[in-house]
Amino acid sequence: MPTFGEYFSDTTGISMESLISGNVEREIEFTMYVHLEDLEELKRKAIKSERHEQWSIPLVKGNTDGKMRIRLIDNTRPTMCTKIKRPNTVGCEEVEMDISMDMFNSMREMAVDGYVKTRYTIPSNIRELLWEVDVFFANGGAQHNWVKVDLEVKSMNDPIPTFPLTTTRVIYADEELTFSDRAKVKALWEEEWQKMDKKKY
To answer: Per-residue confidence at 119, pLDDT binned at 50, 70, 90?
Structure first.
């Protein structure tokens, strides 16, 4: 079984995610896009689920490579997150914090690319490592079988656990994607996963 350090090289495929503390937290995350054979299998094996409404905040890019988003968890907990990619470093510096509902609503007016998704948490075969599976909606309104999967690890020496769900295709979110895989990921975000209509708010 390969370790994360063996699987990835340099900054390939690594992202960082923080606690909702307002401080920079350094965590390593393994990401992939997966076509699930059966969404019901996911729901049976999940130990937790959350509804996420997520929006991107457009930024004027200078010399810093970064992005910003807001998220409403289960219609009750609004949060804000920034990510900055530093040159010659692994992953991103991420700062996430709780915000007021008024702040969320105000920032949503300036946001783009909103999605509603359900995040399912599934235990792995390695203690303390949890799979987070984001299920989006297709344009017809049904849940899409293509999902985004994240796994936070403690260090690059952690082994990659076996993914516990039946899949028909997997795309690893690294920097060596084939043309067809890159096109598929782009199509998911831009065409296949249903975007929210901001006019409703």
So the answer is: very high
